[in-house]
Amino acid sequence: MLEIRNLHASAAEREILRGIDLTVNAGEVHAIMGPNGSGKSTLAHVLSGREPYEVTAGEVTYEGKNLLEMAPEERARAGIFLAFQYPVEIPGVSTTYFLKAALNATRKHRGLEELDAMDFLALLKEKTALVEMDQGLLNRPINEGFSGGEKKRNEIFQMAVLDPKLAILDETDSGLDIDALRIVAHGVDQLRNKDRATILITHYQRLLNYIIPDYVHVLFDGRIVMSGGKELAHELEQRGYSWIEERLQAGSVS
Amino acid sequence: MTELEEARERYCADFERFKQKAARNGGGWTYPLRKTAISRFAEVAFPTTRDEEWKYTSVAPIVKVRFRRADPRPEGVTPRTLAQTGAGELAKNRLVFVNGHYSERLSSVRSLPGGVKVESLAAALVNDPAAVEPYLARHASYQDHAFVALNTAFMEDGAFVHVPKGCVIDEPIHLLFVSTSNGEATVSYPRNLIVIDSDSQVKIVESYVEVGGRGYLTNGVTEVIAGENSVIDHCKLERENETAFHVATLQARLGRSSNFVSHSITLGGALIRNDVNVMLDGEGGDCTLNGLYLGTGERHIDNHTRIDHMKPHCVSRELYKGILDGKVKAVFNGKIVVGKDARKTDAKQTNRNLLLSEEATIDTKPQLEIFNNDVKCSHASTIGRLDENALFYLRSRGLGLETARALLTYAFASEVVNQIKIAPVRAGLDDLLTARLQKICQA
Question: The pTM is what?
Answer without folding.
Answer: 0.91
